[in-house]
Amino acid sequence: MKKVILASAVVALGAFATAAHADDGAVNGAAGGAVTGAIVGGPVGAAVGGVAGAVIGSAIDPPPERVVTYVEKQPAQQSIVVEQPVVVGHVIPQDVVLTPVPEDPRYAYTIVNEQRVIVDPQTYTVVQVLQ
Question: Whole-model pTM?
């Protein structure tokens, strides 16, 4: 049993070290995943949850400040009404027209429910909602 706990701790530490070099989203995701995994599955769950959390946490990083600034400065477009809540991590309908961000093609934006929304144009996943 001690070997399993020790091995789990080593795997978890390795995941955190790897995530720490990636970015803050991965670190936050790894920490949250490890805590959740530990509650559900003990030490082994902590290791697995940490790795899964790092992957998920890095998947929805906020865009760089230059992208946010660009989107904030653009003239207002007509707002699209969407029935579902528009929150980070949710996918907006594919029929919503996106405007690409020229400085960073990884992002696009639109105005949904009177809010400027930065989106991943590949998946239509909301990356940030601007207030």
Answer: 0.57
In the chain, where the domains are located: 2-59, 65-130
36-40: average pLDDT:
58
Residues 6+ apart with CB under 8 A from 107: 63, 67, 100, 101, 118, 119, 120, 121, 127
Look at residue 131 in the predicted model and tell me its pLDDT. Answer: 81
Q: Exposed, middle or buried by CB within 10 Å (0-12, 13-18, 19+), for 103?
A: exposed
Q: Is 118 helix (H, G, I), strand (E, B) or coil?
A: strand
Helix 24-59 vs helix 2-22: angle between axes, to the nearest 10 degrees? 90
For residues 109 and 84, the answer to whether their CB atoms sit within 8 Å is no
Q: Assess contact for 116 and 101: CB atoms under 8 A.
A: no
